[in-house]
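pinging the channel bc i need a second pair of eyes. not urgent but kinda urgent?? the chain im working w is below, pasted from the shared doc
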Amino acid sequence: MKKIIILCLLLLAGWQLADASSLYRVRFASYPEKIRAVFDFNGAFSYAVKEATQEKIILLLKNCSATADISNYVEANDLIVRYFEIEKQGADLLVSIPLGEPIDYQLFYLSDPPRLVIDFGRDFIKMVSGGMIADGIEFLKVKKGSADGSFSASVLKIDPRKTEIEPALAQKQKPNLFESFINFILPWKKEENRRHFFIDKVSTIVKDNGGVAGVNGTFFAYNGKPLGALMIAREMVSFSINDRTALFFDEENQPYIDNVYISSYARLSNGVSLPIKGMNENRDNDEIIIYTPAWGEHTETDNSGIELVVSKSVVTQINIGNSSIPEDGYVISINGPEVEQIGDFVKVGEKLDVHIKVVPFSSSPKTIMHLISGGPRLLKTGVFYVTKYGEKFRSDVANSRVARTAVGIDRQNQLLLVTVDGNHRKNGKAVNEEASIGATLEELSSLMLSLGAVDAMNLDGGSSSTMVVKDKVVNHPSSGSQRRVSNALLVRPKI
């Protein structure tokens, strides 16, 4: 919490009594960055701060009175400063100023004409602990204000030494009665609805994986495919986009935030290397894509390429498309110049190895167990570092004010999972509920710094932003309810 700044000038040194002066007017003015209150007097006066807390300021105006038209209750009509109470106390005046939020302020005296000026800032942050939800997991509610308004945030403060933290994918759900009926009478619909990745509520993903709490994860496509690097229990699910920032954990559950580059190739028995462009995504022309069981049972590719089915590092089949993906292996799908020569390079029964190397830009963990990308970066070694242009994010992510989800690491290597509420919408219209206005990336960066983070990054936001604690949604999703998402970042106590 910032310290309250008080500029308290004692006029007429030694509290020498001046001729009695009168307060005859109170004025207010609002500016983007502050609220100004001005007390006008008809003569010189002296003042002191009798009390100053996060909730109230009490000023003592020495040897002063108030004219008859000064009310005991003066409305300011602002969320920060709602009103002033002015009362006579012997020969002096007391001015009580309740504060709506724990803001900074300054007092100063101007002599021509005599007046007392108080400038109230609009920046504040208020944190309230919701207690420990499990060993090593604390929940907090935060409110942060600025010149543009205020927003509410939910925070999970996690000790990695006492918890397990990992990303998880949404799982395929059994069709409900209606869906089963449609699939029965319209069997081609079942084929149309076949997907490789799935979407579900954050609460369901967390519960399905034994989590006690969690937030939504990285960006995803309409079909549920993660848009960025994802690794779960050392198994790669998807590759990175534009080397964007990622959160990852080593084998000791130590967290890191860094940009990552992924290099991958298949090494044939004759020494030839095939560069792999992507993983578990649709194959385009002149591409080599690797498919793992995370994609599904079949590659669903056309017949324009060659596919090597690999089980336990041995080529078991060579097909022209739509290969079955072995549970203990993968399929390398090739389209491009290599297709015509692959028969000379590879035979069934030969050994084939795929090498996938995740290269962090500046950190050096021995082993990466889990990884989830997002971006842009928000903080780097305790300094604002918003890389929205370098990581090539669209304007709806880079420049909007929306609900946000972020992850940070503090100086004690504790993990911070954060959701910021946007303006809740109902039937397409904004609903003002003491409105949380959402945050820009720069404001999100400032919030993470206020929470003690030294490294931080953005995750998927907008209507995806969701935090779940013990099966309950604890933030206010922008759409009014949970959006179904592709993946989540969850936490559970260490067994």
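so Confidence is low (pLDDT under 50) at residues 1-18. and The longest strand covers residues 255-267. — does that match what u expected or am i reading it wrong
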